[in-house]
Amino acid sequence: MNGTTTLLNRMLMVAALACCLPAHAQDYPSKPIKFVVPSAAGSGVDFIARLVGENLRAKWGQPVVVENRPGGGLNIGAELVAQAVPDGYTLLFTPPAPLVINKSLYARLNYDPDEFVPVSLVQSTPLVLVVTPKLAAENLQQLIALVKAKPNRLNHMSGGSGSMMHLAGELFNSMAGVKIVNIAYKLVTTGLTDLISGQVDMSFFDLGTVFPHIRAGRLRVLAIGSDKRHPLLPNVPTVSEFLPGYFATTWSGIVAPAGTPPAIVNKLAAAVAEVMKLPNTVEQLSARGSTAIGSTPAEMAAFMKQERERWNNVIRESGAKPD
Predict the structure, then answer these.
(1) Helix or strand (DSSP H, E) at 182
(2) pTM score, whole prediction
(3) 152, 140, 133: which is closest to 195 by C-alpha?
(4) At residue 227, what are phi and psi to the nearest 5 degrees?
(5) Does the pLDDT at position 187 exceed 70?
(6) Structural domains of the chain, ranges and CATH numbers in brackets
(7) Helix, strand, or coil (residue 157)
(8) 77, 255 Cβ separation under 8 angstroms
(9) First CA to last CA across the chain, in angstroms?
(10) N- or C-end of the chain: fewer Cβ atoms within 10 A?
(11) Rg (CA), the chain
């Protein structure tokens, strides 16, 4: 099937949906909804997708099935949803990469991230700058001074070129005027072990993953990437207190295929916002260092625009390429 035929079929499908929009939106959902998660079962975003899905099932009485489609830099799952019928029953529940990073990172994608319809920014989790306790830096100022005294000598581990961990480090390099060498790991768990043992110097990790190690003294936290201090680490400064404008968080969001009717998108977004306020949801996310959000489609679109600009600039300046 060539590109012209595919586009024509999609236009006909969208037109057909538009004809039956009022009844279709009113009855939504009348069958199971599928969340396509582009990472493996057991991942952080998979946990959150299942939590949200179960709460939506309880609200609507319709199953919400989580389908894991990992691989390809999270592009496989995104491509699947981009090609799905735009009726609100196949949705992408994803971390940032497919929506705001991969278009700049990869020379070619089989989908256009900009064509997805934003539904809701579900939650956010700050990245924290942690160092091995063996490193002679008790705070961010000491770290910057140490790096400047030893250019290209210190390193930070990441989950691969173009990962949030990597880009957060490159943004820090740029804003602090330093050069910390990136070391990419195929398995983040291996990198975490090396960080704790002192074989690597530092990293930007999501708070939920490293909080137990911080609390146990196995890692030292110097700063947090969000724009505000975090309740779990009230005495830890933000990076932006020293480098104004620095911001690095990971997050989960829901988007729909291009052409999904606005009435369905808005109904789904309102339901997600409602379940994200449930005490059970808030408590489970808070325990993982995350903040429940449940935004409107417009708020998610504005946030993604900021994220896209931020990370596109970092990718361009650092020359990051996919592994």
Answers:
(1) strand 181-184
(2) 0.90
(3) 133
(4) -85, -10
(5) yes
(6) 3-125+250-318 (3.40.190.150), 127-241 (3.40.190.10)
(7) strand
(8) no
(9) 31
(10) N
(11) 21
Do the Cβ atoms of 165 and 159 come closer than 8 Å?
yes
Task: Specify the residue for token string 């160092």.
Answer: 131
> pLDDT (tens digit, 9 = 90+) per residue, 209-236?
999 999 999 999 999 999 999 999 999 9
The mean-pLDDT minimum among 122-131, 144-153, 190-199 falls in: 144-153
Please say whether the beta carbons of 175 and 129 come within 8 A.
no
Whole-number pLDDT of residue 151: 85
Which range is least confidently modeled, 1-10, 68-77, 246-255?
1-10
Place of tokens 């969000």: 226
Closest C-alpha to 36, from 276, 268, 256, 249: 256
Residue 1 has pLDDT above 50, yes or no: no
List residues bridging with 35 in a β-sheet.
66, 91
- Encoding tokens for residue 188? 């983040």
Tokens at residue 18, please?
């538009």
Structure tokens at 162: 């173009």
Q: How confident is the model at residue 7 (pLDDT cuts 50, 70, 90)?
A: low
- Tokens representing residue 125 in the block: 């989790």
- DSSP-derived 3-state class of residue 292: strand
**Angle (CA) 195 166 187, round 5°:** 55
List alpha helices for 20-110, DSSP H: 21-27, 44-60, 75-82, 102-105
- Residue that the structure tokens 């989908």 belong to: 111
37's tokens:
């998660």
Angle between helices 279-287 and 44-60 (to 10 degrees): 180
Average pLDDT value for the chain: 93
